[in-house]
Amino acid sequence: MEDENHMRRNLRELLGSDIILRKKRLTKQSKSKQIFCEVLNDIKLLMERSYCLEHDYGISLEGWDEKFLYVVDGLLNLKFENSQIDLNSVSNGIYFIQIIHNNVQYNKRIIKE
Question: How many beta carbons lie within 10 A of that of residue 46, not counting itself?
Fold first, then answer.
């Protein structure tokens, strides 16, 4: 809400008159696109943070990166129905995820116990 008021105030100053802002409901496609972009940004931040900590300090967050699990969950929610996402039927083990975005490759190992 504060961002909306800030935007309204800036536009009013720029245009020199009152304005009306209307929100449009997101379509399913635009909502999916928004979620996908947020997920990609989260992946990028996670990979950068993990790389810096491991490279600079020798600390590996591979088994502790909870945010990464939220990213994976977001990707699954984009593509599948809730009934298809239930991972209880997936056997325990080590899984590898590879994502290529803007010619940059991100690799992550996930351990399901």
Answer: 18
pLDDT of res. 30: 78
pLDDT tens for 11-60 read: 888 888 877 777 777 787 778 788 888 887 887 887 788 888 888 888 87
How far does CA 68 lie from the centroid of its chain? 9
C-alpha pair distances (Å), 110 with each of 68, 71, 92, 96, 100:
9, 12, 10, 6, 17
Long-range contacts made by residues 64-70, C-beta under 8 angstroms, separation at least 24?
Answer: 67/42, 68/43, 68/108, 68/110, 69/110, 70/42
Q: What is the pTM of this model?
A: 0.43
SS3 97: strand
Q: Tell me how crowded residue 77 is: count the other CB atoms within 10 A of its CB.
A: 14
List Cβ neighbours of 74 (8 Å cut-off, separation of 6 or more): 35, 38, 39, 42
